[in-house]
Structure formats: C-alpha cells, structure tokens
C-alpha cells in the first residue's frame, strides 16, 4: 500500500510539472512584469541520510537561490524559467522515488508538497526551504509565537501605576454565547493612559475567529485570531485605549463575542486574557471626550453583542447631542465576513456567472462605508483590504500574521462642522451604510455579513449653554466610476475562458461651518479626496486569478484650538496577488492544490483625530507608517488526507514563505518620539520557522509592492 502511495505521488508530481511546463499554473503576465526577470539556480539537495519518520521530511529540503539577472536587457519568460527547472526536479524525483520505496512511512502528500514548493521557489523568488536544524528552532520552545509586526506604543511598558484583568475566558463552543463580565475603575489609581494587552493561547485545528469587545453597547476593540496549529500557538498584542477614557471612569458591563466551533474536528479553543495597564503620563494637555454614544443594536441589556450586520440589518440610531457640544467625531468599525471577506476580488453581479463551474462573487470589488446624518452624507471610508489568517492561503500567516489582523482599524470622521445643526436639543439620526459599485445605479447593495458599529465622541463646552454656527457649506457630489470588462471565449464561442475587468473610481466631499462657543468663533472643516483602481484577470475557466488594487485617500480636519490650517492625513493601500487552483478528477488519486502569491503595503502619514483631540500636545507631528508584506505559498489537500480539518490546517498541507518590512516614526502614547523598524522573514506551513528578524531603533527602507498586472 505504501509503495502504491509512492507511485501515486510520482504520478501527481509529474502531472504538476507538466502543467507548469504548459504554463497552466503561471501568472498571466508578460515578461517585463515578473518579480524576478531571470534566475540563477543554486541547487543543494540534502540527501545525506535516510528518512526514518514522516516528520523528518525536511531532510530532503531543497534550498533554491533566485536572483535578478544583472547586466542583461531581456528577461526570461515564465515558461522558460519553469522549463529550466523541470529537468532538475525530475532528476530529483527519480532519486526520491527510491527513497519512497525504501522508507514507505513517507506519505505521498508530504513528498509532493516539497517538490511543488521547490518549483515555487525556483520560479517566484528567494524562497528558502531550510534544513532540519532551522525547522527545529520554531518547535524547541513549545508554543509558537504567531505575531503581528507593530511598533511599540511607548518607550516603556514597565511603569504602569496599576493594572487589572478585564477578560479571562476560554472560547470553546461559543457560538451565540459571548463572555459577559463587569468592569470597575481601579481604586486609588491616578491614570491618564490606558493600554489593553490581549494574550491568546490555542492548540488544535480551527478557523480564524473574529473577536469583538464591548463596554456596554460600545465596541472598543475588534480583532481576528491567528489560526492555531496542533502543537499550540500564543500571541500578545497591545492596543492604546486612551480615547475611551470616559468609559474607564465608571462601572461597565463587559461583553466579548468570539463565535467558535469546538468539536471532534475543530479542536482549537481560544484562551483569552485581556489586561488593562494604566499609566499616569504627565501630559501638558489631557482632554478626552466627555461622552461616547453608540451606533449599534444596543443589546448589552440582553447580554449580547451589539454589532450590526449589513445590509440585512439596520444601522440607524437616533441621538440627542448636548446643546453645548464643541467638538464631535464619529469612529466606525466595519469588516466584511463570509461572502464579503474577500470583497475586493468580486465582480459586478452580472459577471458573477461568467464561468459555469467556478464561483465568483458579485456586487463588485468596490466598497464604500458611509456615515449619514439626518439622511445627508457626512463622510465615507474606502476600507483597507484586511486579509484574515485563513485568507488567500492559510499557510501565509504562520508565524507572521497579516497587517492589522489583531487590531481591525477604525475610521474617524470629524462631524464638528455639523454642530450648529445638531445642538438644537432635538433628536437626530445617524446611519451607517455599506455600498458597492453598481453598473446601473452607480452605488448599490453588497453581500451579507458586513459587521459594523460606530461611536459618537462628544466634547462639551463647560462654560457654554448653546453652540451655534453659520450655515454649513457642503460639497458631496456622487463618486465617478469607469468600468471595463473583456470576456474571452473558446474557439467555438460556447465557453467563456477568461474575464478581465477594470474599475476605477474617485470621490471628494467637504463640510465647513463657523462654530461659536463660549471661547469664540472659529471655522471647522472636514474634507476627503479618494481614488481607487481595481484590475482583475480570471483565466483557466476562472480557476486562476490575478488581481491588482490601489486605494488612496486624503482627509483634512481642523486643529483643536487655533484657526490655523487644517491637519492632513494621507494613506495608500496597494495590494496584488495571484492564485491558481487545481482540482483533479479523482481527489483520492491526486492532490488538489492552491498556489498563491501576495504582495501588499500600507503607507500612511496620519494624525488620528481622536488621539489628537485627547492629547493634543502629544500628536504635534503625524505618525508615518510604511509596511509591506510579500509571500508565496503552496497549499494542498485531498479526499484521503484530512478531508475536513486538513482543508483549514495552516501547518499540515502548506509550505511557503512570508516576508515583511515595517517602518514607523511618530508620537508614542507617553509623549516620546518613537522610531522603529523591523524586517522579518519566515518559512510557513509545516513546522514554521522565523528565519530572519532584524529590529532597528530607527526607520528602515521599505520596498514598493510590485503589481502583478
């Protein structure tokens, strides 16, 4: 039986090599767009001694070095590069065939993935499959640290004046049963800054899970988990919570939702501990919001999460703003889940059925989160495309998780120009919407499971009775879009073989009024300019996809006290990836595979509105961030290898590499100036290992994302 398995893997591997040679697995790119125009092969096949256990497969690891071809004006095509590897790989296959026969405990599946990942490394860049000694480094300490690269929040965490545990709970079979606890302010503790530390431990098999933390009806932290591995993972993450200071001064009901399946297949529970660390930083000015109002379902009285699911739900609330409010900001948390998790890979609905046997989601690859006040547009967010730890390919995210995984970012809209209208003592409506591009109506509905909440932060004028304003000047034109589709059919025009779509968009808006409070009159402004580009190419009857997307934006708001020029924040979100899926006719005879390349960045220079208004003397300079993640991974499964759990296991069934550059310069929560750089590289998948980790006390150079299309 084992010898038969060895023959099967040889057959499957040869089929895969033939498909690569025939250009069926390669990106649909011309030569000039290759990440590495030419390659130099340095093959070191480690065959020093026989394998005596399935977990020692790394002794057969191949190390491939790929580099740019210097001094040449031309580049090799994808087909040529793959072809130059085939003879080497096939020679290795013949040598490995003897090893399989001699050592039948080596499974066909594990042998195949190593072969495939060699081709991956030889064709698409510097992927290093390390030796057994390198792999051992990640397992010697027991639990694997699965981390998000992030700059330290302050110069030191050791000076907390007090601390307390906010949440300590194991989320096992927790669907519909959130954690419910209570919070009380620390006794005899003078503090200004509050930092939450989240620690999570998990072992087994499970999906990534979304965690939502509420104080009462107000969501204060949204996070997604790492996917566990059988031997166990842990991680810690710190989040500055100071903008919620008014909540921490009184008793609160604490609700944390983390819907998890826990049974004989999904064996990973999540042990969560959230600890509040309080610091008494001597700020020259400390002015947190006086009150925070929720835009949510307000379900805490029923011991339930208050998150709203759009478009099926209704995210409209009625609120009365104090007559003497002098500043107001709305913070929005929104993330697509389920069918909307990969919204940026969707197409307009009329093109979703382009391929008969391949599912492509509709409602377009564009999303706009809107805030409306009394039915009028106040501001928008064009969201950052978060990739959860099960996203694109699970093996990409162990041990380095994606950008913003542990702290889903909120978007802030300054509604202070509206205060002349809002401070009339009457109730006003605040509504959140999520819309997509529609070829007929411009903006239309989206798929289910956009989870959204909002919070209205209000500062009051203690010496004033009534805030007034001039007539607000508003410019809110409709966004502009340009959509182009191209469909290719087979020679007899009976079957669609490829779909190429391009969507561009632009929007601008602004609100300005002169507000009068007890301290005088001043002009307040909120403005936004946004641009968007998405290009997708679906080939091989929709089984292969190449995507490039770029979202950029600029927002401006008025400073805290003076009539000087507005404060400006800019951001850019480039993302590009390629994925190819191969499914055999008989899944018991050969592996199904998913090959993925991902390259993305987050580039920003921002003054966060809430943090700035809370501690204006700290945020005198913008926070400048540049980070890039580049990874590639082969992921495989079949009907005899972990038919259910194997399809989501990031450790078994994957092999690849992820690399990240991170550079930050900006204010720390304690008033210090933080400069931080980090470069990490990891082998993903089976027994993942961190093979490079360089940390700098200054900024570093971050290379640009290279678009694949």
UniProtKB/TrEMBL annotation:
InterPro entries: PNGase_A, PNGaseA_N. Residues 155-474 form the Peptide N-acetyl-beta-D-glucosaminyl asparaginase amidase A N-terminal domain. It comes from the Eukaryota. Pfam families: PNGase_A_C, PNGaseA. This is Peptide N-acetyl-beta-D-glucosaminyl asparaginase amidase A N-terminal domain-containing protein.
């Amino acid at each position: 039986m084992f010898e038969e398995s060895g023959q099967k893997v040889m057959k499957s591997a040869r089929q895969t090599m033939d498909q690569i040679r025939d250009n069926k697995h390669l990106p649909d790119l011309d030569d000039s767009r290759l990440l590495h125009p030419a390659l130099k092969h340095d093959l070191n096949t480690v065959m020093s001694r026989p394998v005596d256990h399935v977990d020692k497969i790394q002794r057969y690891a191949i190390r491939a070095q790929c580099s740019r071809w210097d001094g040449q004006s031309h580049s090799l095509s994808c087909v040529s590069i793959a072809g130059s590897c085939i003879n080497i790989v096939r020679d290795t296959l013949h040598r490995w065939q003897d090893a399989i026969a001699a050592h039948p405990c080596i499974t066909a599946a594990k042998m195949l993935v190593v072969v495939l990942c060699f081709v991956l490394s030889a064709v698409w860049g510097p992927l290093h499959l390390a030796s057994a000694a390198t792999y051992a480094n990640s397992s010697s300490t027991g639990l694997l640290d699965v981390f998000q690269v992030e700059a330290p929040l302050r110069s030191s965490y050791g000076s907390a004046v007090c601390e307390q545990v906010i949440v300590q709970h194991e989320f096992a079979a927790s669907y519909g049963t959130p954690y419910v606890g209570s919070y009380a302010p620390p006794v005899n503790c003078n503090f200004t800054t509050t930092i939450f530390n989240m620690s999570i431990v998990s072992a087994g098999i499970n999906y990534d899970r979304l965690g939502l933390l509420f104080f009462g009806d107000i969501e204060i932290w949204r996070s997604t988990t790492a996917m566990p591995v059988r031997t166990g993972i842990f991680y810690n993450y710190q989040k500055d919570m100071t903008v919620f200071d008014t909540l921490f001064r009184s008793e609160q009901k604490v609700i944390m939702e983390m819907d998890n399946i826990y049974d004989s297949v999904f064996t990973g529970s999540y042990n969560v501990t959230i600890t509040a660390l309080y610091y008494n930083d001597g700020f020259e000015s400390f002015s947190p919001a006086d009150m925070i109002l929720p835009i949510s379902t307000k379900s805490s009285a029923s011991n339930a999460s208050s998150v709203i699911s759009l478009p099926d739900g209704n995210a409209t609330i009625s609120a009365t703003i104090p007559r003497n409010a002098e500043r107001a900001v709305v913070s929005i948390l929104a993330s697509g889940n389920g069918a909307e998790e990969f919204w940026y890979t969707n197409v307009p609905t009329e093109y979703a059925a382009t391929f008969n046997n391949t599912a492509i989601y509709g409602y377009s690859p564009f999303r706009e989160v809107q805030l409306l006040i009394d039915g009028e547009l106040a501001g928008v967010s064009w969201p950052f495309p978060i990739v959860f730890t099960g996203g694109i390919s699970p093996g990409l995210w162990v041990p380095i998780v994606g950008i913003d995984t542990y702290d889903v970012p909120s978007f802030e809209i300054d509604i202070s120009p509206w205060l002349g209208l809002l401070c009339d003592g009457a109730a006003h409506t605040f509504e959140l919407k999520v819309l997509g591009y529609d070829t007929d109506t411009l903006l239309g509905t989206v798929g289910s499971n956009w989870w959204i909440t909002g919070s209205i932060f209000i500062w009051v004028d203690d010496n004033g009775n009534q805030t007034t304003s001039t007539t607000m000047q508003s410019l809110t034109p409709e966004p502009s879009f340009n959509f182009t589709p191209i469909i290719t059919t087979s020679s007899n025009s009976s079957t669609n073989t490829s779909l190429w779509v391009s969507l561009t968009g632009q929007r601008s808006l602004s609100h300005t009024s002169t507000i009068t409070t007890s301290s005088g009159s001043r002009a307040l402004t909120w403005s936004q300019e946004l641009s968007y580009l998405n290009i997708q190419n679906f080939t091989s009857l929709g089984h292969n996809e190449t995507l490039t997307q770029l979202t950029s934006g600029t927002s401006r708001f008025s400073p805290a006290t003076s009539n000087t020029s507005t404060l400006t924040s800019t951001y850019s979100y480039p993302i590009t990836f390629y994925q190819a899926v191969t499914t055999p006719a008989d899944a018991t005879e050969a592996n199904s595979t998913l090959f993925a390349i991902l390259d993305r960045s987050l580039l920003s220079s921002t003054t966060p509105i809430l943090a700035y208004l809370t501690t204006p003397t700290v945020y005198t300079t913008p926070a400048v961030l540049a980070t890039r993640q580049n990874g590639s991974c082969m992921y495989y499964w079949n009907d005899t290898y972990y038919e259910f759990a194997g399809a989501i296991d990031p450790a078994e069934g994957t092999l690849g590499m992820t690399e990240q550059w991170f550079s930050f310069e900006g204010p720390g929560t304690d008033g210090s100036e933080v400069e931080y750089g980090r470069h990490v590289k990891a082998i993903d998948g089976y027994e993942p290992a961190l093979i490079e980790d360089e940390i700098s006390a200054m900024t570093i150079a971050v290379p640009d994302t290279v678009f694949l299309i």
